[in-house]
Amino acid sequence: xxxxxxxxxxxxxxxxxxxxxxxxxxxxxxxxxxxxxxxxxxxxxxxxxxxxxxxxxxxxxxxxxxxxxxxxxxxxxxxxxxxxxxxxxxxxxxxxxxxxxxxxxxxxxxxxxxxxxxxxxxxxxxxxxxxxxxxxxxxxxxxxxxxxxxxxxxxxxxxxxxxxxxxxxxxxxxxxxxxxxxxxxxxxxxxxxxxxxxxxxxxxxxxxxxxxxxxxxxxxxxxxxxxxxxxxxxxxxxxxxxxxxxxxxxxxxxxxxxxxxxxxxxxxxxxxxxxxxxxxxxxxxxxxxxxxxxxxxxxxxxxxxxxxxxxxxxxxxxxxxxxxxxxxxxxxxxxxxxxxxxxxxxxxxxxxxxxxxxxxxxxxxxxxxxxxxxxxxxxxxxxxxxxxxxxxxxxxxxxxxxxxxxxxxxxxxxxxxxxxxxxxxxxxxxxxxxxxxxxxxxxxxxxxxxxxxxxxxxxxxxxxxxxxxxxxxxxxxxxxxxxxxxxxxxxxxxxxxxxxxxxxxxxxxxxxxxxxxxxxxxxxxxxxxxxxxxxxxxxxxxxxxxxxxxxxxxxxxxxxxxxxxxxxxxxxxxxxxxxxxxxxxxxxxxxxxxxxxxxxxxxxxxxxxxxxxxxxxxxxxxxxxxxxxxxxxxxxxxxxxxxxxx
Length: 646
Ligand code: ZN
Hints:
Elements: E1 9-13, E2 16-20, H1 31-45, H2 48-55, H3 59-72, H4 80-95, H5 113-121, H6 131-142, E3 168-169, H7 173-181, E4 198-203, E5 206-211, H8 219-234, H9 239-254, H10 257-269, E6 275-283, E7 294-302, H11 304-315, H12 317-323, E8 341-350, E9 359-362, H13 366-372, E10 375-379, H14 380-393, H15 395-399, H16 403-428, H17 447-463, H18 466-470, H19 477-492, H20 508-523, E11 530-535, E12 538-543, H21 546-566, H22 569-581, H23 585-598, E13 603-607, E14 610-615, E15 621-627, H24 632-642
Parallel strand pairs: 2-13, 3-4, 8-10
Antiparallel strand pairs: 1-2, 4-5, 6-7, 7-8, 9-10, 11-12, 14-15
This protein binds zinc ion (ZN).
Zinc ion binds next to helix 17.
């Protein structure tokens, strides 16, 4: 299957696009690895209902009712209330509940209470809901005043009472604070994350924790997770992986948070296996108090090609440092590259599905990070899916000037974009040095913009160097050109779609990109290195000389490194304020208008592949088949009927 045949975007509704991702080379894996991925994948799916219940106490019931109507409705499926319910259900699926996954606001249905009752009456079977339950959830669905925010960060009100999530019951913020402040830390250098895996409940005057474990709350789902983790034990890739799986199983069976810490300590040190996973109560964004951890899972397979790429870069780190256009006084005599871990997801689950992050850095316990380190991954097949979908989204056609530029972007844009990121991360940030006595804080509020500019310029300067082709990192110079096109287009125009009218640039990565692109445009004007073209009332920035542009990047890199090394605050301020902050109003509104016409969805959710074991006559698994599901609704219904344990 090649890229042009595979459909990355399946559909779009409300503010959501549904994408799917591929798992390169899955078919070629040895059976043991396929089995490990499959078992870990099942463990990742079995916790789905936990996140639904964590997000809001009525979520599971509401999902059940709506799915019942979707399947059993006998009336005209083209009628408005039915279609509105189908869209609403998709939005709920995407958010793992009735609150928007990003804004946390309660979703508003585009049908009424009487519509819903009428739809229920026209079903071929009775709804799986009692009269009392129905009375309870109707106002929840239709009254915007009830439980309207999943996580409230408004500190003027009680954070617990104003948040709709299901981590606490009948308890005030003050009582929660008192409860956890009184928890003892026997060893302050290895503090336990008290409360991370429990629901805190007040009944009468008694406050109790319901711990999430095999025989406690969420036990039915956790038992299933454990069942599959035990299967994974038998096919683990090495003994360390086996040991850490055992610790995770023990944690799930006991709810003992110390075991989860021990698991994490072992997990950060396991770096040899091709297959890795996240599975547990991890992130605390779903709780305004930052105590309770949502359940999530990601199963990962190392990306061989991308890992080779970052290894090649790291191995040659000294060459890049020695040949940079920076003043000798600011160079490191000995430089070490960083090897980033690039993986492909094989299954996303819990809080990481259907919406998912593109990079993850764990564990969260600060003391484990300091004493044992952390693991950081970028999920290559997810960023790839985003990229492929974006090619069809129309941004490129709208903002790229020539057919040549568009073709180059389609052919090389993804690879050269990745190489830019790798050079930025593996070399850029690690290059150069401060002069003695210069403080790391010298550039104050301009420090992070200057630092990002330094890393980006390092990447841009080398992108088009013959050394890159020589090392096999890019196929030819055209690939480098496509990154230059993209950088200038984004820095001067397309990134502005994320900024509201009349606002300036605030975020340091965005400031850095405009700083570089605008500085290069202004400073190349006399030689027409980047030309501003206006055609049919549309603005384009067109690169006329790529090698002269490279020289400009080199000049700016030398200057930015000087500013950083000498701690020249005034120069940093001048550079950032002149080129990186202000947006030309007319250009901004033009860009926003052109973007609006494309009708793109700002958020994405993913459909997982489906894995099916093949058995021989003695019931042994002989293979695992991978299939790319093409319907979001059917995957969600499949999950609801096969992985509903609560
Ligand atoms: Zn950076």
